[in-house]
Please model this.
Amino acid sequence: MNEKASVSKELNAKHKKMHLDYKTGAYFDYGNHTEKVRLRWYEVTDNDVMRRELLRETLQSPQLQLVLHVDCSCDERSIWIVILLFTCEK
Model:
């Protein structure tokens, strides 16, 4: 198994442990959440080198709430792919 697949499998197991409710088979999360977010490119200068970084912008203050993740398996794979792409680039 390659490194990315191993990390993906480990993250998936941790996600299930933290968020899967085995009684209902659904994923839940409790914490500060908001739907009003977007990703935006920013230009960053570091040691006289200009680069672009994709950063998350929150457009509305998060509220403490319980959130049901519907069809999380699809979203979950997408999230892990993005995480792996950004972390394994270095």
Summary: Residues 54 and 87 are 13 Å apart (CA to CA). The mean pLDDT is 76.
